[in-house]
Amino acid sequence: MTQLILFNVFNGLIIGAFYALMALGLSMILNLSGVINFAHGGFLAIGAYLAYSLTPYIGFWGALAVAPILTAIIGLLVERVLIRRLYGRDPLYSLLLTFGLAFMIEDGTRYLWGPETLPFTIPDWLASPLSSDFFFLTGYRVFMVVLVLVTVGALFLVLNRTRLGIRIRAGSDDLETVSVLGVNVRILRNLNFGLGIYLAGLAGVLAAGMLGLQPTIGNELIMPSFVAIIVGGLGSLPGTLLGGLLIGVASGVTAVFFPSASEAVIYVMMGLVLLIRPRGLLGEEGRVL
Amino acid sequence: MTDGPFSMKINRRSVLKAAAAVGVAQVAAPFVISARAADKVKIGLDDPFTGTYAELGKNEKIGCELAVEEINKKGGILGREVELLSEDSTSTNTGTAVQKAHKLIDRDKVDFLLGNVNSAMALATGEVSAQAKVLHIVTGGHTDAVTGTDCHWNVFRVCNTTRMETNSVSQILFNEFGKKWYFITPDYAFGHTLQQGFEASLKKFGGTEAGASLTPLGTTDFSSYLIKAQAANPDVIIFLTAGQDAVNSLKQAVQFGLDKKFHIAGAQQELEVLEGLPENARIGTWVFEWYWNQPNVPHVKEFVAAIRKKNNGKVPTARHWFGYVSTWTCALIANQEKTLDAVKLAKALEGFTLPPEIALMPDKVAYRAGDHQLMPDLYVGHAVSKGAVPEDLFHVDKIVKGTDAALPVSETGCKVTWPA
Amino acid sequence: MSLLKVEQVSRRFGSLVAVDQVSMTVEPGEFRAVIGPNGAGKTTFFNLISGFLLPTSGRILFDDQDVTAVKPANRVKLGMARTFQVTEIFPELSVRENLRIPVEVAAGHRLKPWQSRADARAMDERVDELLQRSGLTGKAGRLAGELSHGDQRATEIMMAIALNPRLLLLDEPTAGMGDQETYDVTQLIRKLHREQKLTVVLIEHDMRVVFHLADRVMVLAEGQLLAEGTPDEIAADDAVQEAYLGAEAETA
Amino acid sequence: MNSTLNRQIANALIWALLLTMPYWIGFVGGYTSLASRVVVLALAAMSLNFLLGFTGVLSFGHAAYFGIGAYGVGMTIKYLAPSTPLGILVGMGVAAAAAAIIGTLIVRLRSVYFAMVTIAFGQVFYFIAYRWNAVTGGDDGLSGWRTLPLDFGIGKLDIAGQPLTFYYFVLALFAVAVGIMALLLRSPFGRTLLAIRENERRARFLGIPVEQHIWMSWLISCVFVSLAGTLYALLNNFADPHDLRWDQSGDFVIMAVLGGMRSFWGPLIGAAIFVVLQDYISSQTENWMSFIGLFFVLIVLFFPRGVVGLLRRKAAS
């Protein structure tokens, strides 16, 4: 039994890392632009489908590199054409817009690629367990975690070390001051949105290797990402990362004892966090009010 | 053009074309209300065309469309032209499915109602059609209650009950692969009844249940359950998951190497699912409800060819067959009885045998009196990772007659009450 | 007995000390002005008094009751009302509705799901009276957001007055106004103060307004109390001249 | 005075249209149960708008309470007692309890964060309905019960047998609920909600305990949305976990915005347009989701103040 729990803690971390990848993108967009991107799951699907279509030509690794970038470009365009118009307006509108966008993306992928589940093939050596005792540690899962860690590491490096990253962070804290300092906020938000969508696209490619590729692939993944953000603390990216890992572990462990509550448990966690510490585990003070 | 991931030819031009098609053809369509002439016989299909079950619903619709074309070529129903009205029930929103049933019955005044893929919707729309006294053929919802505890005088079903599926395959599993079974069961009525069916068989044969994991419907990560299954060390792991859950669970089971240690099996399997799996995950012993590669059965070849023409060159699946058979049933029985009166037709359908060119199966296929369940053949066999023909992903090992697999009517819990 | 007593309050933001051990005592009926150059901590000081911020240390007594940690809504109940530097009104409601809301709150009706005719009439009368006193009667039906800056300010002040406060806190009521508007608002404030012996604490930038209205003036600089006295005393104070008026005079 | 007269004419017109809807909806391609659906969803959207349009608080999780109402009535009739009115009361009562608890957890949050947390909490109830098979029927939904006739002692009224009877049953409850909301909005309490919508800081410094008032508005809104949910379940003879999902909440919000959030009747108009449009488009094309999505986008970009806002602007110019 202990072993079973241990297995599931590991496993939860793997899934949590994946949630965190989604949630970080969402969180960045939310922090800088005040937009809850409901279409994030849609962009995940776009990333997955693009990877599927690219694989025969440039292989899995090529697709892994290119598909998220293409997704990000689509994201940049969407931001420029649609989302940008809504900054400074009631957040209600951006919520509704991305909600509609999510519908359109789901239907669009169904139209272009068909409603059937598509077989997405990953390299053979990734698709087998690393050891027969820890058979759930497939090459692919380990690879996923490593990739998420590298990506998150790189993201934090970008945010802390590059000019763009520092501006994004500063803008998330106090947009007015940043714009007074002469930073072009429009471009900043555009690039930030693209970066967030890149993460969604990457999550999409990874998801396609594990799940069936369907137009609704992103729908089940977006809500846990919301919870990750709230649990981790609004406005805090390390918080989001922590939140993602925590809910992954929580639902993994719950699945051992009480499978039908494995989703509900993350919402219960969120309720507890809100009750005890409304700003989230690592949230900034003052974000709540 | 038929296979390979780029079969959709996603290039700039086709994207533009697609956009134009969505934009123009379909925007224009809503505003051109096709005159629904009163003298046509109308068949309503209330099935999911969006969401998780979209593919299954669409395939059923193609089967219906083929049947309607054929029926009209042969003189229609009672000499009148037949029209198929299809409504998207969505995959998950039963309220919408009910609404669409109302729409088809109340407004469009359909003479027959077909659908639904989703069991819950099949049950809920069955209530509507029973209240409105419209003959209703359930195409693809498998839960036992449709022709069991919740049966109605006007509701017939062409796809199998879950019990028929488990009964057809359990003997083979037990004899050839071992008597200790572990279940991966999706946590809803469909999964529960399948598991109960297998458990009944186990009891009969004297086997043991190594354990069971109830997996929430829509689970994306099956590893916790697979870990448990591995720990139980069974002879056979039985996957009762369907649709997207089946794709996800099998994909992950193979990645974990479980197929190398245990035999993988299950009950209902569909060509749509096998096609969605990577080659190495096309494994296991399953039941198909109909299969296209039946070289010795007459008329099947013609049916396959006809569907291919309508289906981007792809072969028919059981779903196409469901749609085809249920639509033809309406025509056959109405022309035989020379009436559209639902009560008379329903009475005549009890015990009605499908002609071989519609049944497309080796044995006699008939609607059973008492519970209104069709008694088709079941195709027990194993998945093939790469067939001689690309779409030949299943090898039929044994054909089981529906009448041998089904519970007797007295045990289904169905008591049909006819309207006064 | 003093109405408001501020004892050694401080407020820090991180390493910045915005208000540093400032004390103040305001007597009933007094008109007190708080002045100081930009960044002197006036607004923070004001926010501490009105409960918008909590002090890091120190005490605030209102009518001998410790209100240091009392929530804004409850301070209103005790008799404190305030206006804001940037006008805070209900822009999409009419002027009449803007006034009616505080009138009903003051009458303790805020949770009433219905209103008797007599109550409704009483509320209407009170609103009419407030409109009349402020000269807004003719504009009662217009949306507050469509009024001129000066009229919006008058509306805001009357909303505070509608609460029947014992202490009125005014945060730069003439900020961003032209001469005529400044004059009108100053006259209104003066009238209100005189008519009902209202205790007022005013933060102001415009010295003409301060000298016209205030009984006593308190000067803040860099978060600390620099001087306190009558307007004339302050005008004569060298330190104040240096820190504040001098700079002001030069730019003016 | 002119505007009061206009308002009375508009009210009379709306009630006349509602009272006669089953008789004219056929001419515009509808059918009686579509009329019931319009009224039920309009009630949901108007209830949401009590919070959204008149308190200025954005909830994206109202479907949860809608669904609790639906399951409440279904489970009461199935397990507890064969009474439709009792079922409705239980549905509303349970929803009120849930909303009261959730409300205390979230009243301190604002704008996007409030929306996000309401969505997430809504999902808790969704998962309960979706997963707790033994009680709720899980994915298969709650079936095996049906709308029962109303027993008035002297006689029974079968509301389920005839779509027309059911429509008027729905309309009667709609009238009561909408009437109560209209009265509340005209009361001193209603005005404090407007105050919060207009300027929360000002409201707070006028002595209004903002959290308490938002909590009450939230509760009222959720209770009426749950009434709509019970009617929806009675309409379908079925309760469906999808009723609680976040996309259902999104539909309510878009109905309110489409019709006009600042207007009392706006959400009714929005619901009518949305329901009829969705019913129509989804019959015409399998790609209806794209159109609904596009519809959302267009409304946000071009009609943010909704139909009523547009009419008012026209009238003003």
From TrEMBL, chain A:
CDD domains in alphabetical order: TM_PBP1_LivH_like
Protein localization: Cell membrane
Membrane topology summary: Multi-pass membrane protein
Keyword field: Amino-acid transport, Cell membrane, Membrane, Transmembrane, Transmembrane helix, Transport
Transmembrane portions of the chain: 6-27, 34-52, 58-79, 91-114, 134-159, 195-213, 225-249, 256-276
UniProt key word Hydrolase: no
Entry annotated with the keyword Transcription: no
Principal subcellular localisation of the protein: membrane
GO cellular component terms given for this protein: plasma membrane
InterPro entries in the record: ABC_transp_permease (IPR001851), BCAA_transport_permease (IPR052157)
GO terms of molecular function: transmembrane transporter activity
GO BP annotations listed: amino acid transport
Recorded superkingdom: Bacteria
PANTHER family: ABC TRANSPORTER ATP-BINDING PROTEIN, BRANCHED-CHAIN AMINO ACID TRANSPORT SYSTEM PERMEASE PROTEIN LIVH
Sequence similarity: Belongs to the binding-protein-dependent transport system permease family. LivHM subfamily.
The protein's name: Amino acid/amide ABC transporter membrane protein 1, HAAT family
Species per Swiss-Prot/TrEMBL record: Tistlia consotensis USBA 355
Automatic annotation (TrEMBL), chain B:
Pfam families: Peripla_BP_6
Name of the protein: Amino acid/amide ABC transporter substrate-binding protein, HAAT family
Source organism, top-level taxon: Bacteria
GO biological process entries: amino acid transport
Sorted UniProt keywords: Amino-acid transport, Signal, Transport
Membership in a protein family: Belongs to the leucine-binding protein family.
InterPro entries in UniProt: BCAA_transport (IPR051010), Leu-bd (IPR028081), Leu_Ile_Val-bd (IPR000709), Peripla_BP_I (IPR028082), TAT_signal (IPR006311)
Span of domain Leucine-binding protein: 40-387
Automatic annotation (TrEMBL), chain C:
Source superkingdom: Bacteria
Residue ranges occupied by any ABC transporter domain in the UniProt entry: 4-247
Keywords in alphabetical order: ATP-binding, Nucleotide-binding, Transport
GO cellular component annotations of the record: plasma membrane
InterPro entries assigned: AAA+_ATPase, ABC_AA/LPS_Transport, ABC_transporter-like_ATP-bd, BCA_ABC_TP_C, P-loop_NTPase
Gene Ontology molecular functions: ATP binding; ATP hydrolysis activity
Keyword Nucleotide-binding part of the UniProt annotation: yes
SUPFAM superfamilies: P-loop containing nucleoside triphosphate hydrolases
rRNA-binding is among the record's keywords: no
Protein name: Amino acid/amide ABC transporter ATP-binding protein 1, HAAT family
Naturally occurring in which organism (per UniProt): Tistlia consotensis USBA 355
Higher taxonomy: Bacteria, Pseudomonadati, Pseudomonadota, Alphaproteobacteria, Rhodospirillales
Automatic annotation (TrEMBL), chain D:
Gene Ontology CC entries for this record: plasma membrane
Localization, UniProt: Cell membrane
Pfam families: BPD_transp_2 (PF02653)
Transmembrane keyword on record: yes
Entry's transmembrane regions: 12-31, 38-66, 86-107, 112-132, 166-185, 214-234, 254-277, 289-311
Leader sequence segment: none
GO molecular-function terms, A-Z: branched-chain amino acid transmembrane transporter activity
UniProt-listed InterPro entries: ABC_transp_permease, LivM-like
Organism: Tistlia consotensis USBA 355
UniProt main location, coarse: membrane
Origin: domain of life: Bacteria
Topology within the bilayer: Multi-pass membrane protein
Keyword annotations of the record: Cell membrane, Membrane, Transmembrane, Transmembrane helix
Protein name: Amino acid/amide ABC transporter membrane protein 2, HAAT family
